Structure formats: structure tokens, C-alpha cells
From TrEMBL:
<dbReference type="InterPro" id="IPR010982">
    <property type="entry name" value="Lambda_DNA-bd_dom_sf"/>
</dbReference>
<dbReference type="InterPro" id="IPR011990">
    <property type="entry name" value="TPR-like_helical_dom_sf"/>
</dbReference>
<dbReference type="Pfam" id="PF01381">
    <property type="entry name" value="HTH_3"/>
</dbReference>
<dbReference type="InterPro" id="IPR001387">
    <property type="entry name" value="Cro/C1-type_HTH"/>
</dbReference>
<dbReference type="InterPro" id="IPR027417">
    <property type="entry name" value="P-loop_NTPase"/>
</dbReference>
<feature type="domain" description="HTH cro/C1-type">
    <location>
        <begin position="1"/>
        <end position="57"/>
    </location>
</feature>
<protein>
    <recommendedName>
        <fullName>HTH cro/C1-type domain-containing protein</fullName>
    </recommendedName>
</protein>
Amino acid sequence: MLDLRVQAGLSQEELADKAGLSVRTIRELEAGRVARPRKDSVRLLAEGLGLRDGDALQFLAAAGHATVRPVIAVADAAPSGLRWRGTRPIPDGLVGRDDELAEIETLLRQNRLVTLVGPGGVGKTELALAAADRVSSVDTAVVVVDLTTVQRDAAVPSAILDAFGTAPGTSDLDDVLSGRKPGDLVIVEDNAEHVLDGVATVANRMVRSFPGIGVLVTSRIPLGLPDEVVRRVQVLGVPANDKDLDEIASSPAVEMFCRRAARVRPDFALTAENAATVARLCQRLDGLPLALELAAARAGSLSVETILAALDDRFRLLSGPRRFGAPHQRTLADTIAWSVDALSDPARQLLYRASMLGSPFTLDAVVGVCTGEPIDALDVPMLLAELVDKSLLQPVHEFEALYGARYKMLETIREHAYAGLSSQGSDLVEFKDRTVAWCSTYVEGLDGAWSSPDRERRYRAANANSATFEVALERASALGDWDTAAAIVLGFRIAWQYQASLAESGIQWASVCAENVQDKEVSGRLLAIAGRLSNLTGDVRAARRYYGEARNLISPSSEMGLMARGGWVSSGSLLLDTVSLAEIPTLVEDAIKHGDVQRSATVQAICGLALARWGRLPEAKELLLAWEAALVNPGVYPDEIAYMALSRVELELGNLAEARRWAELARDSQASDDPERTKVAGCLAMVEFQAGRFELAQALIDEADADIRGHRGYFDYLVMLYRSRLARRTGDLEQARSSIRDAVNRLLLEGRVVYLLDVMPEAVAVLHGLGQHEQADALCGQLLAWQRTMDPPMLPTAWAVLQESCESAPVAQGWPLPDPAEAARHMADDLLAALS
């Protein structure tokens, strides 16, 4: 072989590079210290030396591979008692992966080939090693193959043999794999994405030809084999907010950061003082384990506040110091660049351009904004699939039936891609301008959607692009193009209503545009939108203010004028403002005169809800039934809120059968995977409770309570109220106390004062149950005085609870009071003090 290498004019290092073998192997072979080299090694050498056909066969024969040789016993290569070869899992290396670890262990025991896929730095290696450790035993050996330094697909078999510990060139891969019993061996092939073809070829041979072998692969890209089971490794869960200490402490991302920070700063711990900062830090880092680890390494010299502030240039901050792991994972920038550099040019450009769309974004937005040389619109689905396969994008499967296909980009990847787009001359400006143009055209297509039979689909699809619309509005405002920004807000207004978590952005843009546009009518319409969205997010006082301003700017009989007046009436009823109720007759009359059946029905439903809150149940029922009768008209569609209002009215009137019928219609009209399920589940629970079906009511309350944790909704207080009533029935008074306290706090925060009258009678019963009779009687006396002298009165279900609890309480003196809302808030404050 030495002569052939010299004839080829190659050094040992050059031949090693061409053949994909180590320099050590070349040196050992040329020194004659390997009597019988591996067949795979000989083939690679022949290719590296440029041998063809007969010369290659002669070379193989000279190395002893012209005929079939006997199989080497398994024990010769890897003794059956040897449990582990290669990299071991790091102690305490996994955080928040218990469910994933159990699943992967099960998959390894049931399948021959499992691939863990995910973006760089997500923790695939540690998860794979921990899962392999779970299945290793006296009877099951684990061999870990680190493919990081393997440069050629053809060198993968040699890397696996090296991992077995065989002497260079002494055996073939077939020799060490043959003869194994099922479950005898698991091979972990780590960091496979850059030699994917080689790994796929060998893995396919292993699972098809050697039934005793299990293969676990980590890669940023699936192998694409028919026997492969793919599991995507997700980032660690981050806190949903930065205020709830218990929720922050239970976050896996926070736990990992704190553990790693304590290694470089032993006194570091999560506290009430630093919890909000740590939560925001973990959110900014997307829960990506590598980023958390690198950030925590800085905690020895920097405060958490400083680390968070420095994340605007995260690649500079998180550049080390990491001295272990694959070379391309020692800095955050290297980790991302490793994947991005391997993309085709169209895929890379699509990633760059999509980075400025916001996250998540839709396929429609990508086609509308990001196409153009070198990206053909017809290729976008294929390119998106490539980016997903290579773990640079993640599909958003949650509520896919409602919002369509969406994709999100980890913030770390987005910043890398955004920098790539920014470096390409004027591309960033061009594509931001294209985003404005696309969004402007998109909202034009929403005209008339409210009256169309597929309005839910169209508005949900628009809502899915809310992050992209944010980009367009930021660009339009930076250009001072307030007319365009206002047109986008007006066209997009309904789509913001579908998720309370996004409505805050809509409020901001509607109010900012209202301040800057010249047309007063347009300004009024924008303020009406701000009012509607404020009501959705629970800020009733802000809603009242915005609606009040809008009423003075918009024509009162126009569509948006009717909406503003209806919102003003609705928010007023929540705030116990009797002035609002006086407008209902005129408002209903004007809506009917408007001529639009759909608008008229909507106004009647809004006014019916307001009257129901005020205890005027027959009048409320009349208006709500008028809405229901209008459903026969084109453009008027079922709405679960109005059905629920009818259910509540019938419940208060004592008509349980009708209340159940309306509640079931509400359930049937709500999308099956609507992210805000609280409303209907809570409504059904109230009916079942009043019917005495307590177990079913409890199940419905549990369903609704789980939903409350994810958003703030209209009827959350009712879920808390009925949780208290159910808990009080079973003697769980601490649960009852907690639920009532939560309900009162929520209503005070939101300003929905009228609903305090539903909650406080239950609070009286809870206080009596807790033995706090003096406080209970004081509150009971005030409520009795309210019922006699104030407007609105308590609803029948609340009044019944109060009567059961107030047999001996005297009526409070000094009523009526001039300000009903202030009186209700004062009672609520006293109640919270008693419940604390």
C-alpha cells in the first residue's frame, strides 16, 4: 500500500482525508501491524488511491478479501458482559424530560430504529444517552458512536467499528454485528446530519440484516428510512408569565438555568426578587438547553439582569466558555450556522426572508412576501418542508384546524437569519415594504367576511398571520403612513378578537393610529376597535373610555357607530352605570332601521346581555330571542355567547330544560378545538349544578378550570364561583375560600363590578362554613340592604344562596348609597380582607 500511496503522490494525511480514515489506521497498515484489515477500510483505501475495476479487486484480494471468510465470534469484538462503550450521559444532565425519556425508552424496546430530531442545542444527545442508559443491562450492551469528526458517508462503518474498540483494520462491521440475540445491543449514532446518507445506509443494513441490533440516531434531519420512528425533541417549557412564582419555579427551562447557574455561583437560587427576570430570560432563550447553559455560565460574573439586557446581542454574549461537546456546538452562533450553512441557496434565502415575518407565520404569508429570485412560489411548500426537516422551522400543530398551517422559528434561529437578511444590502427594507403591501391587500379580501358563511375560517386564518401584520404596522408607522396603518387595523379588527392574548397589540395599534390619522370618522372607528378589544382583555374601564370617545366621532346610525354605542351600553352595564341602560331602546330602534339584519341581531344580543346583567330577565329574553329568530336570515350565524346568555336567563327564571337546551346549542356552535373552551363548559356546569347532577358539574368545571390557566376569558369568574359551590358541598372549605378569593380579585381587576353580586352571596356561605360568622353577617347585612334598595338586584340563584346563609343577620343601615359601583367595590375589599 505504501508503494501505491507514493505513486499517487499522497501523504498519509492526504490519503486519510480522501479515504475518510484516521491517520493512525494508515500508519498501522503501512507498518504491517495489521494482518487482516477490514473490508470496509480496504474499499475506502482503494477509492482514496483512485483504483478502479481489476486494480481494486486485486487490492482487495491482496488484503485477504477475495473469498468469504468465517464470521468472527461476537465475544471477540465486544464481550457480552461489557455494558457500555463510548460517551456516558452527564449526571443530572436532563431537566424536565421525564415524559420524553420514558417514551423513548419504550420506543427503543419496541422498535429497531429510532431517530431523535431537533434543532442544534435542543438536547438530543443527552436525551439519547439517558434513554440508552435506561435500556442497558447485563444482557444489553450500548455502543455510542460520535460522528462529529467523520467527514465522509463512506467512513461511517469504520467509525462504528472504532467505537466497538476493535483494532484498526482487523474486522468488518458484519463480523461484530452477526450472531447477536434480540435486545443484545443498542448502537447510538450521535450527530448524524452531515453524513446522513452513510448513516442511513448502515442503519438500514443493521435493522434489515441483524435482528439483534437496535439503533438510536440523533440528527437535525430524519434519515428517511421506512423502518424509522422519528421523534422531535422539543425545547424546554418556559413560564407562561413572569408574575406567578409557583409557575415560574415549575418551569423546566427555569430549573435548568438555575441548576447550571448554581454550578458557577453556588449561592444562586430562584427568589421572589429575581424570578421575573429569570422567567423573561428563559422566554427570550426559547427554552433552548444550549442557550440556557451558555447563559448560565455567565452567571458567575454577570447578574441575571445584565445577562437579560445583553440578549439583544445574544451571539456575542453566548459565545462560550464551553470546552466540551462537538466543535460546532461550543458557541450558539456555531450551532445555528452549522445547520444554516448546509442549506440549499433557495432554502437559506427563504429562512432569511421568513425571519422578518414574525412568529408564527403562515404559508400564505411566505408565498405573498418572500418569493422572488431564487425562490419560486411553487417551490415554497417544498422549501418549508426542508426547513422543518432540518429543524430550522417548527410546524405549529396546536389548533391547526382553526388557524391552518403555521410555522414558528426559535428566536435564536430568527436572530441569526435576520442578521443574514440584513447583511444583504437593501433586502430587509424591500421585504418589509412587501409585507405592508401584502397585508394591505389581505385585509381588502376580508371585506364582507362577517356576513359570509365561512367567516370563522377566514378570520381565524387572518388571526394566524397576526405576527406578520405586526411587522407591517411597525413598518407603516416608521414611514409615517398612518392612513395605510389605519386601513390595515380596520380590516384586521375582527381577527384580533379571536385570541385575547393578541388583542393587546390590536388595542395599541388602534389607539396609536386614532391619534395620528386626520379623518375624525376613521379615528372614531379605530377607537371603537380599541374599546372592543379592551373589553375582550378584561379592561372594562378602558373599553368604556374608548367607546365613549368613539360615540362622539362616528355617525350614530352607521355600522361602526352602532357597534360603538352597543359597546358603550355593554361596558356600562358591567360597571353598574345606569346611564348606559337608558340608551337601549333607541339603540335597538336605530339598529333595526339600519336595515342590516345581521347588525340588528348583533345589537339586540348585546343589549339583551346588558339587561340580563341588570336583572331585567324578561326584557333580556325578548331581545335574545329576537337575535335567535334572525338566524334564519343569510349572513346571521349562531354565536355561543348569545346562546349562553339565553341559557343563563332561563336558568335564573327556573326553566332548567330550556337552560340546558340553550347551553347545548352553545356547545354545538363552538368549534371543537376552540382554544377558549371555558365559556361553554362553565355554562353547562351551572345547569347541571342547579339540576343536582353534581359529579357531571364537577367534571365540566375541571375542564373549564384547565382552560382558565391558558387565557383570560369572559366567564372565568363563574368557573371559580361554581368550583366554590361544589367544594362547599363536599366540605372542602379551603378550596372554596381560594376560589371565591380568586373570583373577586379577577372581577375587581377587570372592573366587571356587576358580577360581584353573583359572587358575594357565595362568599357569605363560605365565611359561615369557616366559622367567621361576624364577618359573614356583616357582609350579609349589606347585601340584604342592597337587595331592598339598590339597582340592579341580585339574580335569583345568588339571592337563594344568600337567603340560605343569612337567617339571623340584620339589614345594614344607611342604604341606598349614591354610587352603586363604589359600594360593590367597598364590599369586595372587605370580603378579601376577611378571606385572607
